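Re: weekly structure request thread

Next one in the queue (332 aa):
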Amino acid sequence: MSYDLPQLRIGPVEIGFPVVQAALAGYSDWPTRVIARRLGAPYTIAEVMLDKFVVNVSKGRKASRYIRTGDEEHPCGAQLMGSTADELAPAAIKLVEAGFDVIDVNLACPVKKVLSKLRGGFLLSDPENALEIVGRVRDAVPPSVPVTVKMRRGMDDSPESREKFFTIFDGAFRLGAAAITVHGRTVRQRDEGPSSWEFLREVKRHAGRNTVLGSGDLLTAQSCLDMIEQTGVDGVTVARGAIGNPWIFGQARALAAGEAMALPSLREQREVLAEHYRLAEATYGPRRCCRRMRKFGIKYSRLHPQPEAVRAAFVTVGNPDQWRELLKTWYP
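Done, posted below.
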C-alpha cells in the first residue's frame, strides 16, 4: 500500500516530504539534527531556546553549541520561548542572522518551571500577549523568513480554554504565521494520556488552506502516516519517536512509497552511534559530550536485540574509550 501524501511547504520554504523532526528540549541539538537529515528528515527544528539566552549569548562556546546551523541542514528552524514580545522579537532577529530559515514560537511547553515564568504553554491562557508576541516576531524578521507557532490544544479541556485556543490559532494566521503545529494533548496533560487526533482533525477542517502540522503519539513511522491520513493535517512533527530512532524518517518514506520498511542492522546502528558521538564531541568537547550522549545511547538501545543489557551498559559510560568499547562489545 502506498500513500498519496501532500508536499509540505511553510511559506516560501519548500520542505517536501511531510514528516519532519520537532524541537525537543535537551535533544534536538545540532548533532541530532544532522543525523536526522542524513537519514531522511526533510526539515528539523532546533531545541527550544529562551529569548534572553539568544540575546545575551551571541558568540563563544555556548553560541557555537546552541545557536548553530550547518550547510547540510537547510532548511532548518529555530524555536523560541519567552513571556514578552519585547524580548522575543530581537531574539528572533539574532536567530535569522545565525542562519535559521524558519522561526517557531513556542506556546506549548507544559513544564511547571516554564509555566511559572509565564512562558510556553502558559501563553495559551493569555491570547492578547500570545498574539502580540506572534505579531511582533513576524514584523521583526524578513518577509522571506516564515514564522510558525507551536501550540497544544489548550490549557485544559474547559470551554474557556478551547475558546482561547481558537482565538490564538485564528489570530496567528491573520498576523502572518505560515504554519501552526498543534499537539493533541493539553498543557495540563503534559505527556500523559492519549493525544487527541480527533481534535487535530477538527482543527485542520477549521483551518482550511492554512498549513497545520500535527504532533503527539508519533512513535513509529506508521503512526506518522496514519495521523496525516486520519486527520488531514499537512504534515507531522516527530519528537520523542525520533530520539534514538532517526531511521523513522527513512522508514516513513519507504512506507509512503509502498516499500518494505527496513529496520536498522546492528552495523547500521553502530555506524550512526559512532557518527552521532563524533559530531557531539566536536560540538561539546570530550568531557561534556560523554555525559550528554549517555541519554542518547539509552534511547538508541531500544532498537538492540538485548535492549535492557545495552541500556545498562550505556548508563555506566564515562569517557570516550568506554564509549568505543561499548560499541565494539554490543554492536559487533
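The beta strands are 8-10, 13-16, 19-21, 44-50, 76-81, 102-107, 147-152, 179-183, 211-215, 235-238. The first helix runs from residue 30 to 38.
Next request, please.
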